[in-house]
Specification:
Radius of gyration of chain A: 22 Å
Helix content of chain A: 55-70%
Mean pLDDT of chain A: 90
Largest sheet of chain A: 2 strands, antiparallel
Structural class of chain A: mainly alpha
Number of strands of chain A: 2
Oligomer: homodimer
Largest interface: A-B, 88 and 88 residues
CATH topology of one domain in chain A: Multidrug-efflux Transporter Regulator, Chain: A, Domain 2
Distance between the termini of chain A: 57 Å
Low-confidence stretches of chain A: 211-216
Shape of chain A: elongated
Order of helices and strands of chain A: HHEEHHHHHHH
Strand order of the largest sheet of chain A: 1-2
């Protein structure tokens, strides 16, 4: 197919495709004339993956390259490949020096993961992400209870099981990585929205005026 | 107390306190000399709330004012007050015109909330947040199944119940709003991190090499 069809089928503008070609995120097509190249289904698959990483999961281009390299190495197994993709779109956290709240949060995070017996690599950037959230609550004098963290962890694991149900080991590596990052990023936004909606519902049930739901926000 | 002590006890720099005073987010202290003012525990409480809104929940100053006004109106009940705070830190979503994916997502979102019988106001910005995430998945040709959305909703509601357990109707209005926005914003980050960690664990269990966890990312 020509670049125009590649654009139409992927939903990526031609200018963006040309940019990805220049940045070597997409292999060049086969030249059919001085100004035209022919692209294949493989290009389309790769383009969809780059788009999912760049636009949906907001992975910086430099890290997209690392994900594509892992996709192209067949000796990297599916679990490791999904890990490379997930690590690429979780920004690293810098640990502040000499911060007792941070150290306490780091200890609590490590203890929680050990207690749960989750198989998480020592370099997982989500460890830092969790530590940062807990440290911020420590700093405000409102640390989450161990029970609350355990409850949230159980809910998160249930969600992760549904997430992994969407990964088909028989599908192509590109498709699996695309599925994993897309779902991870977008269902995270959905989960955040659902929690806010549920907070509003639960607040109405507990603190709203009347038991008939008339106290819903925006209806007062 | 003097402004220096207010700064020390709140953890907010003096320059920031002066900025909040100029912006009328904090009432002026009682002047004790031409250059000094005296502040009370009420100032400290208000300052902690402004800080939680501005720094933790990243609420823009213009919307912080609306939250403070609601805090100061005693005829606004706790449920409505929590709603004002939550709406203030959920950015509004603009619906694109003539977008069939958006319309489908909006319909699915409304149907889900109706089925769940959640008490959510028609103007809740989290509706738009959920619609946006579902529409993005529709656009990519990977819409979440109804079963997945229901599962996520159940997990979100469980989290929201724990969240509401942290609200003490006997506490001051400032404290409750501060607690609600702090916990909502920070436990959201914690939940996001826990889900990524759980995905890594679940991926290791399903796709990792060996059943002994040796396939955890970063240990290969």
């Amino acid at each position: 197919m020509r670049i125009s069809e590649l654009s139409r089928r992927s939903g990526v503008p031609v200018a963006t495709i040309k940019y990805y070609l220049r940045e070597n995120l997409l292999p060049k097509g086969e030249a059919v004339s001085a100004t035209q190249a022919e692209y294949t289904e493989e290009h389309l698959k790769r383009l969809r993956l780059v788009r999912a990483l760049a636009e949906v999961a907001e992975v910086p281009l430099s890290r997209i390259r690392a994900v594509l390299e892992a996709v192209d190495k067949p000796d990297i197994d599916l679990h490791t490949l999904l890990g490379v993709a997930q690590y690429a779109f979780t920004p690293p956290t810098e640990a502040p020096a000499d911060d007792p709240d941070w150290e306490r949060a780091q200890r609590r995070t490590a203890e929680l993961l050990a207690e749960l017996e989750w198989r998480v690599g020592p370099g997982s950037p989500a460890r830092g992400q969790l530590t940062r959230a807990v440290a911020a609550m420590e700093r405000l004098g409102r640390p989450p209870s161990a029970q609350m963290l355990r409850g949230y962890a159980a809910a998160a694991h249930q969600a992760a099981e549904w997430d992994m149900d969407c990964i088909d080991p028989g599908a192509s590596r590109e498709e699996n990585v695309q599925q994993a990052v897309t779902m991870s990023a977008l269902m995270e936004q959905a989960l955040s929205a659902l929690r806010r909606l549920a907070q509003e519902d639960e607040s109405a049930r507990r603190f709203g005026c009347g038991a008939d739901g008339a106290g819903a926000h925006g209806e007062g």
